[in-house]
Design brief:
Layout: H1 2-12, H2 15-26, E1 38-40, E2 44-49, E3 52-57, E4 62-64
Antiparallel strand pairs: 1-4, 2-3
């Protein structure tokens, strides 16, 4: 089972695969996201919670850039 998870993480790190999956699952097959608009982002984020500042890791993280924003 771990091999499937690793393969999914590797594939989703590619912007074209991510865009295709997101368009199929979230937008019912409509082409809303384009691979050229998706850029890698940090996989660690920080937040303030009970007891101070905490961090969390994501397997894959991406920025969506449209018209330079």
């Amino acid at each position: 089972m771990a091999e499937k998870d690793i393969l999914e993480k590797v594939l989703m790190a590619h912007s074209d695969v991510f865009a295709d999956c997101e368009n199929a699952l979230a937008y019912g097959g409509r082409r809303r996201l384009k691979a050229e608009d998706i850029f890698p982002a940090p996989t660690e984020s920080f937040y303030r919670g009970k007891g101070g500042i905490h961090s969390q890791f994501e397997d894959v993280s991406a920025y969506l850039m449209e018209k330079g924003k």
